[in-house]
Amino acid sequence: MKTMKTTIMTVIGATVLAAAAVSLAQAPAAKPAAAAPGLNVLVAGAKPVAGKTCKLEISSSDAMQFDKKELKIAADCKNVELTLKHSGRLPAAAMGHNWVLTKTADAQAVNSAGMAAGIKNQHVPAGDKRVIAATLVIGGGQTTVVRFATTGLVQGGDYTYFCSFPGHFAIMKGKLIVG
């Protein structure tokens, strides 16, 4: 009897998972965030200044990963324009991603404060001076851009970028190299 119950539960579980996978595969992709008004804004950080702008791209996925573990900018960059793409299909409420830049020593504390700040604040603590730059939280198929001045970044400094969506910090992080 116990084996029969286990078999039935396994079949039911597999059927539910298969149905969810089919439903997800057939779901239309989310509209790009860049098309929505106000999403290409600086959530936190120094406003861009005159001078050379270095462009960076990074992608995130439903597997809770950035496609790059390291981003590099030249020492003469006065501004950075970073494009974050979410290549997955899940909505922001279920698998949202953002990109937050801090000094490495501040990353864990800023992440914790971001979780407490909640989605209404894009999981970034409002007005926190430790945040160098941050994007909005986006879902599958969406893109957002953040532009910020490199004022305060030093060549050889220790900078970490990460996703502050709850539960993502441990896996979704990398290094920003200046110079």
Put the structure in a nutshell:
By secondary structure, the chain is of the alpha+beta class.
How would you summarize the topology of this molecule?
Blueprint lengths: L1 H25 L17 E2 L7 E8 L9 E4 L5 E8 L5 H4 L4 E4 L3 H11 L13 E4 L8 E7 L9 E4 L10 E6 L1
3D architecture notes:
The chain is α+β, with helices and mostly antiparallel strands and 179 residues long. It is built from 3 helices and 9 strands. It has helices at 2-26, 92-95, 107-117; strands spanning 44-45, 53-60, 70-73, 79-86, 100-103, 131-134, 143-149, 159-162, 173-178. The strands form 2 sheets. The protein has a 6-stranded mixed beta sheet, covered by helices on one side. It has a 3-stranded mixed beta sheet with strand order 2-4-7, with no helix packed on it. It is globular.
> Rough shape?
globular
Radius of gyration over all CA atoms, rounded: 19 Å
Q: What structural class is derived from the secondary structure elements?
A: alpha+beta
Helix content: 10-25%
User: Going across the major beta sheet, what is the strand order?
Assistant: 1-6-5-8-9-3
**Helix and strand run:** HEEEEHEHEEEE
Q: Kindly state the number of beta strands.
A: 9
The main pleated sheet reads as: 6 strands, mixed
Distance between the termini: 67 Å
The helix tally amounts to 3
Catalogue the unreliable spans. 1-42
**Overall average residue pLDDT:** 81
- The fraction of residues assigned to DSSP E strands is 25-35%
